[in-house]
């Protein structure tokens, strides 16, 4: 769905009105359209120039990203990466100001800022914990300052996981993360601290099989297209009324499809049989299917409560357990749940939906610990306001508030969710597990 206000804010009259009245000014975001991951130079810095700084340099080189550790006056940078893992104690935090203050004016529009720290819960020194936890406040505040479609994100490492940072840096520095800002990602938190080398930057999922539920339209369709773009053989699943759309999409992408209701008792076995028969296993499982049945709790029916919860989290849990029981999720595979900002911050009239989506987070974080020994990861994408067909049913005032109440003053696109899913699915993201990534332009109220 188009954003007419955004277009208005960028014409000559609109610019004048927006500037003088202090209205939201949603920038046009750069999204990935092929080619190099980063079109421009990335400036790197480090508090100590230790092993993490060296791993960053190696990762950027491997991804063919132009990077330098020497700042030049007057040069514009597409990205800034700062290794803050060596900062300890309150006094040490000045290293953030010393690196960023001189260079922030040199950050290009739609620029990227990434700060790297150590997971506070993995540290024993009180001074270390103070400094590393402070990075969250720093990055989330800076994300609200940078403007121009730029983003700021924080990557926490467990010690020893620095060599698993490559795909995460590539995602956060590239246009693939256009609508992701103010987020915190942990690498190595489930004990997986290494990631295999990815042979192709353009096709990291070559030879992999991906299953997407709710695949025929909207977010699911974007997931299918993006995973196929990255080289995966895709399997789409959707309900019988959408079979024609599902079949056409699967055939276009050279993949397969399953028609059925994921809440049906036989669904887990049917899906497992399809995967086993056609592919022998699956590498990426995306539980995208979901519905809303919005009512305030005093008007909620048991049927609408249970249906929403079962589609969002009950059925995905049963399907995943069946695939795991039959050893059909390959080593190095990943399970991705779709939550929502509603599951983090809550939403009026959505007690069923918010409960379901919060349940997705709890389930996936528990699953991540359970499957780590098998080299399988599990993560959550939590979208905010997305420009899908569903928003047409939202009253205009609420719709506009949903669009503007984030640091980028606009709604996201289905591809923004799909790019996050593709990053989680990338074999190079093997150390990324148990995370909840908000794809929401950094919501200003309720949750980041």
CATH-defined superfamily of the largest domain? NAD(P)-binding Rossmann-like Domain
Query: What distance separates the N and C termini?
Result: 24 Å
Radius of gyration: 22 Å
Task: Count the E strands.
Answer: 13
CATH classification class of the largest domain: Alpha Beta
Structural class: alpha/beta
The second-level CATH architecture of the largest domain is 3-Layer(aba) Sandwich
Return the average pLDDT rounded to an integer: 94
Count of discrete domains: 2
Q: What is the share of helical residues?
A: 25-40%
The total of helices stands at 15
Q: Could you spell the SSE succession in H and E letters? A: HHEHEEHHEHEHEEHEHEHEHEHHEHHE
As a percent range, the share of strand residues is 15-25%
Spans of 5+ residues with little confidence (pLDDT < 50)? none
User: Which sequence of strands runs across the widest sheet?
Assistant: 9-8-7-10-11-12-13
> What is the fold named in CATH at topology level of the largest domain?
Rossmann fold
Estimate the global geometry from the Cα principal axes.
Answer: globular
Largest sheet: 7 strands, parallel
Family: Belongs to the short-chain dehydrogenases/reductases (SDR) family.
Pfam families: adh_short_C2
InterPro entries: KR_dom, NAD(P)-bd_dom_sf, Sc_DH/Rdtase_CS, SDR, SDR_fam
Protein name: 3-oxoacyl-ACP reductase
